[in-house]
Structure formats: C-alpha cells, structure tokens
C-alpha cells in the first residue's frame, strides 16, 4: 500500500520515495529474478533510531546519500525501511533487486529497521509495521506465501540485525534457521 490508497488498521503506511524526498536513482534497479520473493531479510541500520516522520525521512535520505555517494551504488540498498514512528519508507520497492545482501539480492525483500538493535529491540510500532508490510507483500503476491524470514547475518558475515533484534525475529512467523 502506498500513501493515498485506502488504509485499513493492519495495512502498512508506506511513505513513497517522493514523499520522503528520495533522489532519482543513477540507474533503474533490475527486477527480482525470483517473483514473488521467496525470502525476507531483516536488517538494522546500526544508527540512532527515529520516532517521528520528519526524523525518519531525514534518516532515509541520509542512507540513500551514503549508499549512492560513498558506496557508489545506483540507489538506496533496501527494498523498504521501517521507523519507530510506525511508518514504512519505500526504498527500491517491490519486485526490485536491492543491494542489501549480495547472495540474496535477486530473490529477497530487504527490510531495514532504522536503529541500533544490538542491545535493545525495536518498539511495538516498528515491529507491527514490519508485520503489516510482510502480510501485505504476501497478500499482494510480492512475497511467496511460504517465504523464509532471515536475519542478515544468516546470509552474509555480519552482526546485523543486532543480537537483540535477531533473537526477537527468531520468534516471528516463517523465521528459518537455514536459508
């Protein structure tokens, strides 16, 4: 669901790239090789979180600038980002190959929860927003109904999504011990 569409209580409030002030990508992201996506990969930003739309929009613009200007990527790396304000921020979006976990980029939806979750878990608003986004993805045939949920550390040598968040996602539906 994108802003402007009719919203129900359990649908995600997706803030479009235009709404958060996203730059034009250097090149268009290629389509996912596998659709609907068979994997959902959870990340954290290892940065201070955000609890207001204005603060989260600023963070998302900063991530995009970092990915494009410092890493040399064509766009922001994630498909979606989630703030502790309870909003979902569109990255490269549905059906597009992100740049968030190299061996899984062409077959996953990468969701970054904005914040550092090494020693704490995201608030209830962020957790609910992720759940609503995934459910919406399944209902919209953007994510396979039997998808596997993984933490970034399961697909790449990293501590992401932080110990506390990783422990939390192990209890989420469809978490898989092995990719």
From TrEMBL:
GO terms for biological process: innate immune response; peptidoglycan catabolic process. Residues 1-21 have a biased composition (Basic and acidic residues). It holds the Pfam family Amidase_2. Signal peptide: none annotated. Keywords: Disulfide bond, Immunity, Innate immunity, Signal. Disulfide bonds join 50-56. Residues 27-162 form the N-acetylmuramoyl-L-alanine amidase domain. It comes from the Eukaryota. InterPro entries: Amidase/PGRP_sf (IPR036505), Amidase_domain (IPR002502), Peptidoglycan_recognition (IPR017331), PGRP (IPR015510), PGRP_domain_met/bac (IPR006619). Gene3D superfamilies: Peptidoglycan recognition protein-like. Residues 12-156 form the Peptidoglycan recognition protein family domain. Transmembrane segments: none annotated. One of its GO terms (molecular function) is N-acetylmuramoyl-L-alanine amidase activity. Residues 1-31 are annotated as: Disordered. The keyword Disulfide bond applies. Belongs to the N-acetylmuramoyl-L-alanine amidase 2 family. This is Peptidoglycan-recognition protein SC2. The lineage of its organism: Eukaryota, Metazoa, Ecdysozoa, Arthropoda, Hexapoda.
């Amino acid at each position: 669901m994108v802003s402007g569409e009719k919203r129900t209580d359990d649908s995600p409030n997706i803030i479009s790239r235009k709404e958060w002030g996203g730059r034009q990508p250097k090149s268009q992201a290629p389509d996912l090789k596998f659709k609907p996506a068979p994997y959902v990969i959870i990340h954290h930003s290892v940065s201070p979180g955000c609890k207001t739309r204005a603060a989260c929009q600023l963070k998302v613009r900063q991530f995009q600038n970092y990915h494009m200007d410092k890493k040399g990527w064509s766009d922001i790396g994630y498909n979606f980002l989630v703030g502790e304000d309870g909003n979902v921020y569109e990255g490269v979006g549905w059906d597009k190959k992100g740049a968030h976990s190299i061996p899984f980029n062409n077959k996953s939806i990468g969701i970054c929860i904005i914040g550092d979750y090494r020693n704490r878990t995201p608030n209830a608003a962020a957790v609910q927003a992720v759940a609503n986004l995934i459910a919406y993805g399944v209902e919209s045939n953007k994510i396979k109904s039997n998808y596997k949920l993984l933490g970034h550390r399961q697909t790449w040598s990293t501590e992401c999504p932080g110990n506390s968040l990783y422990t939390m996602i192990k209890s989420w539906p469809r978490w898989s011990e092995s990719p």
